[in-house]
Amino acid sequence: MHNHWKIKVILLFSVLFLAIALGLSRGAVHLSLAELILRENRHIFALRLCRILTAIMVGSGLSVTGIALQAILRNPLAEPYLLGTSSGAALAAVTAVLLGISAIYLPLAAFIGAIFTVILVYHLARQGGRIAAQSLILSGVIISVAFSAVIVFLISISGNEALHGTMWWLWGSVQVYDLKLLSAAGLIVALGTAVIFILAQDLNAISLGEEEAIHLGVNIETIKKILFFTTSLVTAGLVSVCGIIGFVGLIIPHIARMLFGPNHRLLIPCACILGAAFMVFCDMFSRTLFAPLEIPIGVITALAGAPIFIILLKGRQQVE
C-alpha cells in the first residue's frame, strides 16, 4: 500500500514538472528549454518563470483553503470565495479605480476589501460564541450577491477607461512581475498552508462529525476560528494580487480526495502539487490558445473546471 502511494506521488510530481517545462517553453513565441537559457532569451525566461511561480502559489493556496473549508463546514461545495473575499476585494478594487487611486495600490485596496468582507460575514454568522456553518454560508452568499450588484452598478454608471484593466483583473491574472508583491503573497500562502497542515489531524476528526471530534478532544470552535482566519488571509492575499480565479479551490480538493483518500496529512501536500500543476497548465493555455492574444486565466479555469465538476458530481450521484 505504501508503494502504491509513492507511485502516485511520483506521478504527481512528474505532471508538475511537465507543466513547468511546457509553461517555460510555450507562449506567443515557442522556444525550447535549451534556447531559453541563451542570453538573448533570458528576459522571456524570467517573465515566464515569474508567471509559473505565481501560478504554483495560486494553485496551492486555493486548493488547500478549499480542503480546509470543505472539512470544517462539512460541505463539498465549499470553496475559498465562499466567505465573500472575492466580491469584497473586487468592490474595493473597482472603488479604488473610480476614485483615481494609483494602480500601485490596487492590491492593497483589494486586500483590505477582502479582509473587511470576511469580518462582516463572520459577525453576521456568529451566534453567541460559536459559528454556525449554515449561517456562515448564507451570510457569505448574501454579501457576495450584494457586493456583486454594487460592482455592476458602479461599472455601468462609469465611463472610466481604467475599469477595462480592472475587468481583466476580475477574471484573474498571473501576470505578477513585482517580486516584492509576489514574495509577500507567497509568504502568506506558505504560512497559511503550514497552519492548515499542522491542524490536519483535527481536520480528520472534524470530517468524521462534530460529536466524534469532541470525543477525540478537539476544541472545534477554536479550530474553526483559526482556520476561518487562516483561509481568509490566504484567499485575501491571492485575490489582491491575482484577482478572482474560480473553480480551483472547488474541484482540486475533490480530485485529490479521489486519488489520495480523506487523510488530510497526505491530502494537503498532494492537493498543493495537483493545484499547482493545474494552474501552470491553465496559464500555458491562456497564453497559447489564441496567441498572441491572451485569455484571462479565470476563463480557462472556469472552462476546464465546470465540466470536471459536472463529471465528479454525476459520478458521486451514481455511487449514492
In short:
This protein is an all-alpha fold and 320 residues long. The chain has helices spanning 2-25, 33-36, 42-73, 85-98, 106-125, 133-157, 163-170, 179-198, 200-208, 210-215, 220-242, 248-260, 264-288, 297-319; strands spanning 126-127, 130-131. β1 and β2 form a beta hairpin.
What is the number of helices?
A: 14
Annotated CATH architecture = Orthogonal Bundle
Strand content: under 5%
Rg, Å, rounded: 20 Å
Q: Helices and strands: which structural class?
A: mainly alpha
Query: Per CATH, what is the topology?
Result: ABC transporter involved in vitamin B12 uptake, BtuC
With strands numbered from the N-terminus, the spatial order across the biggest sheet is 1-2
Order of helices and strands: HHHHHEEHHHHHHHHH
Q: Main beta sheet, described? A: 2 strands, antiparallel
- Work out the count of structural domains: 1
**In one word, what is the shape?**
globular
CATH class: Mainly Alpha
Spans where pLDDT lies below 50 across 5 or more residues: none
Number of strands: 2
The named CATH superfamily: ABC transporter involved in vitamin B12 uptake, BtuC
**Helix proportion of residues, in percent?**
over 70%
Task: Describe the 3D structure.
This protein has 320 residues and is an all-alpha fold. It has one domain: Orthogonal Bundle (ABC transporter involved in vitamin B12 uptake, BtuC). 77% of the residues lie in helices and 1% in strands. The chain is built from 14 helices and 2 strands. It has a two-stranded antiparallel sheet. Helix 3 packs parallel to helix 8 and helix 8 (179-198) runs antiparallel to helix 11. The mean pLDDT is 86.
